[in-house]
Design a protein that fits this description.
Keywords: FAD, Flavoprotein, Oxidoreductase. The chain is an alpha+beta fold. Helices cover 35% and strands 27% of the residues. Strand 15 and strand 16 form a beta hairpin.
Length: 394
Amino acid sequence: MKTQVVIIGAGPSGLLLGQLLHNAGIRNVVLERQSPEHVLGRIRAGILENGTVDLLREAGVSKRMDDEGLVHEGVEFLVDGKRIAVPLKELTGGKTVMVYGQTEVTRDLMEARRQTDAISMYGVRNVQLFDVKSDSPYVTFDKQGETYRIDCDYIAGCDGFHGVSRKAIPAQITREYERVYPFGWLGLLADTPPVNHELIYAHHERGFVLCSQRSLTRSRYYLQVPLTDSVEAWSDERFWGELKQRLPQALADKLVTGHSLEKSIAPLRSFVVEPMQYGNLFLVGDAAHIVPPTGAKGLNLAASDVNYLYRILSKVYHEGRTDLLETYSPMALRRVWKGERFSWFMTNLLHDFEGMDAFDRKMQQADRDYYLASRAGLTTIAENYVGLPFESVE
């Protein structure tokens, strides 16, 4: 088999890249280790930046998002019992975010790909990358007892933190940066109306809280918990009770509780690998970087990578601009590090860390006082939250 681009991983980044390339007349094959049902079963974030929304529209997969997604013009912070509004649209010249679950984005992309003649292969095993530094890279894999080979021009590694793509780059070539946070987020998904029409990020002496949503009838709540906690130790009743303790009485009284559809504890980590390119292999999304969810940047940074790689490959195939290939990693990393900084900043702003001394707490309080009490500080938060602009690929 031969194609122009092999995409490893059928999560939202791989499928979005595949759809954009297909629309541009660039042949591609998507390989995925899991089944489609398993991919759709992953519960992930649901806040889409302004630029991510535009990219989904450009890919032609936005109809359901535009019909069912919730446009949010602001977000709230809750500190010392005080609610502070951040008017995103007002502070950013009209930009907003969209509440639309990653699962739904993936579903829309899967459906769009099914309607084309583009090839997606699920349930593949033993994926291996060869000759990625040459002009003739290829990928081999096993499926249903047979071994296949795909020759290609380029490989996009969209297969996540534990995938094979990053491991195909020699260790002496890469440098990894990591920060592991000493707590996790216990998340609960329920078919209950959100407690507030905007998301609420809360700092509390008992631990951080995020009141989020997937729709007008489906809510997602998070509690900061020790990494030693287990999901089994948190009954629905205990979760709702703890959440109410971390909210002001007026919000706690409005909270509608219900049976959990999903409950899990996610560890928090910041991770970046450099470079994001090795020869004709390009790392995309979680294969190259992880962010704590506090800044709502995970899926959005993956979409940013897709944006750059898609535009570069389009110019390579349509204009012969192979000189642009070497710009992918530095261009993508500039935006990645800004997203990492914002996620790190939000995590430090709103979580108490074990071992913080009196000076650390005073500095944290000073940051909250400045960023949440001045227009300049609120504008910085708003600009990062709705998403920094993409660089032009020229």
